[in-house]
Amino acid sequence: MNSGKAVAPGDMIGILGSGQLGRMLAMAAARLGISVHVYCPESGPAFDVCAKRTRAAYDDDEALAKFADSVRLVTYEFENVPAHTAEFLARRVPVRPNPGALAVSQDRFAEKSFLNSLGIATAPFAPIDCPADLVTAAARLGRPSILKTRRFGYDGKGQVTIRDGDDASACFAAVGAAPSILEGFVPFSREISVIAARGLDGSIAAYDVNENVHADHILSTTTVPARIAPATAAAAVAMTAQILNALDYAGVIAVEMFVVGEGAAETLVVNEMAPRVHNSGHWTLDGALTSQFEQHIRAISGFPLGSPRRHGRIEMRNLIGGQASAWREWLAEPGACVHLYGKHEAREGRKMGHVTRVFDGNERV
Predict the structure, then answer these.
(1) Which domain holds residue 65?
(2) Could you tell me the pTM of the whole model?
(3) Mean pLDDT of 32-44
């Protein structure tokens, strides 16, 4: 990979993707004196706040080459970047996090195999390429279990629960008959995530562990710190650091985990990882000394990492679909930090914004 020149204030970096994560990355970069060129086939919220924009397909080599020539490095706001796009750009300009980390996270079978190779526990799983595979795997892993496409699934899309009596052919068809994995059920007590960054020099900074609640497979609320034992929190951060080092990673990563058991009996099972800034880290914009977005820009640019210290107890709530229509009420609430993403259509299940409340350290959320 082309190592490129060092990034400095006044330079331009590239972002693949024009969604709200790209928007917040561009705003964080501007705070450090770095301008942003956003590349995406569709216009989106990031286009409103960047210095330069290219609307072109991810397989348009001519447009990609011009994009690469305009920036010091390229990062991305979503993990489903086509492999060709990442490889094409990496021959011309640094891509961070590296394409190898991207490839691992894009395929659920590869991801879980990688995690298991590090000695990190995941749900039991099996590859599924046809209904017969599903019958065999369900007999071994039990029901209920979850059938998930290996690629391109998020927020509950591309997955179906397999229960007693369900027809294997119908379930496989429900995920588009795409290459998939079957995951065994994990009896978790809560869901958590770790947001952490690794710099070009190998330094690592992790935020306090998040506790997440989902509704209809979409993150609803995040509270920090998570209600877990200190030893469990330390283990979660240590696992994340292990993953970052194994991938020779630069940037912010999110690792989602299940907590199994309570108190001294707690154990951790990694659900998945995202090689990017993450919804469960949005609270850092208002609740930490350095936001995850600034931390990512620092990490990929070779800047010193910022402090992840938290200001107090945190509650972050996503505004999904029509919930964002109550923006006046949220703005009127003392202490509520409102972020609206500039999306013009509030569809069901669409993340339109979020609200963060920061409480005094001695006050319960």
Answers:
(1) 12-95
(2) 0.95
(3) 97
